[in-house]
Design goal:
This protein is α/β, with parallel strands linked by helices. The chain is built from 16 helices and ten strands. Strands 7-8-9-1-10 form a five-stranded mixed beta sheet. Helix 13 links the parallel strand 7 and strand 8. The chain is globular.
Amino acid sequence: MSTRRALTAVAVTLLLAALVPGAAGADGGGGGPLRMNEIQVIGTHNSYHRELPAAERAAHDAVYGGAPIYEAFRAYSHASLPNQLGRQGVRGLELDLFPDPAGGLYANPLLRQRLTAGPLTDPEWQRPGIKVLHIEDLDYNTTCVRLVSCLRLVRGWSRSHPRHVPLLVMLELKGTDPVAGAIGGVRVPQWDGAALDALDAEIRSVFRPDEFITPDDVRREGLTLQQSVLRRGWPQLRAARGRVMFLMNNNPGPISAAYTAGRPSLQGRVLFTNARPGSPDAAFVKRNDPTGAARAQIRELVRAGYLVRTLSDDALATVLSGDTTRLRAALASGAHLVSTDFPEVGMSARYDRDYVAALPGGGPARCNPVIRRPGCRRALSRGAPRARSRP
């Protein structure tokens, strides 16, 4: 072998070692550099959500027969995405997506029609492209209207903080809400193959290939995606810093089936699907309730090598009850992403509470309590920005 070919082979080996630990012989029993699935972070649920104005909230509840639905389930507002990532230290986000290929489909919600308030004034609603909101016609206030606009905010923050641990962005692909549809709301277009391709294209239009982690970056030659993460492991944390990873929040079903059609291990795709363990695309698994027997199930999934997300609160019920059982179970489960509606002190004060979901000891990330890797704290802090103290 020539000197040039030998050096090239060494370079390729080192690159693979950085991206996929198993490629350079890192063992799966806790040895070698820290991997991205050996940490735990806090994320936000419905990260874009802002409450409706008072008149629209009243109109919302009138649709439900006057029951105080909004106050019980939707009366929370998040900071802008950059403020969540920066001041609040979250490392996971969740965006609800609605196709809008021609633009303007969600610009004149039914509630505003009933109030004769006119269409929404932000011109982003009229532009073509996937929209970000909670429920069409009924709960639509958002900090960023178009998916590409939201992602540009995330990318801007990421590029300004290039040593951050991977950002986990959950995407829920939504359809027509039963209540909104029954009262004459818009019909949400189907997430068919063309819409799913458009979703991937919108993400790729914002992020360069080296700025996010795809299934192709993780899958090993000759193995399914599931086999790759369970046998060979996830990328090393040092290689994954400064990058974003997109996770499909939908349960296994028609949308994920369309997304994996002809691509059983997500070949060429951007998102990691929420898959059933045992299927070829199973690398990420969602288990929203961490209590009871589910806590042990999550711990086993984490030990096996899956990436797991759970929820620390049950809407406002957790805050109002003052019961932190679910929060403690979520953190102890080892789920890599623990999502909350209350990532900062003060957000629950309007309910006369001080509830906050934060990692023990503060900071945006901690060593995973289930995997317990030797040397994790040192590796996690090496080269990372100084963590902001949190209560």
